[in-house]
Amino acid sequence: MNACDLMTEAKAAKRLTRVIQLMCANLCDAEVIKLGGKDLQLHLTEGGYRECQRKLEACISAGLHAVLVAAVYAHMKCKAVLSVCLTTVSDLAVFDEELLADELYDAGIIEAVIAAVKAHPADPSILESALYIVRWVVVVYGSYDPIPERVRDSAAAGACEFVVSALNFYCKTDYDKSVVCIGLLIDMTEHDVCRCRLICACDLVVMLLRDDVAGSPDLTSILTLVCLLSEGSDVNAAALVKAGACEVLTDMLDDERISTEDCEKVELALKRLRKQLMVQHVALKRKLDAMAAQAR
């Protein structure tokens, strides 16, 4: 890179930091935040990868992460501004920059995103941005392994319920986003703190299994999710049984379209769910015996 290019890059970084300073100084001004967010979207991703990284580092130093989180809260009721703020954050995921993910997490982006979705549950733009932000900051990070404390904090903020509602929204209309949701749920379900919150996923997961198996979004992943939900949680196993998982899984064993790998997952899930059926049977027998004893 020659001196002219370096000077141009420095000017671009300085201009972007000035935009961030203006957004900080005019946080409650919807027009400033909207225009500033669009400016960041447009110019932060211009140029080569290294150039973008250097601009991003300058913006982080100027407080990019803090102003974006603050702007989400300041304009929670305005969908147009909120959408720009969340889109700006989700666009930054292309960098997969650990420093930025750290700063956004510490600034409270997960709580802000969940609050935004709760405020506008039917807005597709906000939902899409929120989904990719949660995946990037909580799960897809560096080594592509979930960070336990982030999973715990996101669960406390309502991320489990959010991802289930997103899957419910996308499962009939968008294959790619359905796969993202299922992958996120698998990552979350591996943690006890999330597993106990995912009873809300059981009916939906069984519904996906009931649908045309050949056309279901990534059947192997859905079966993995069923196995994880039923593991170590009697509450989830009971919910899966109640939703009809045993009948659906039993039918799958006779389906020639199911791969050997998937058949093994079906058998594992059935083994766990039948154990739950036995628990329910014993509990019911005890209850009936107690009622009979009282009647005598």
From TrEMBL:
Designated name of the protein: Uncharacterized protein
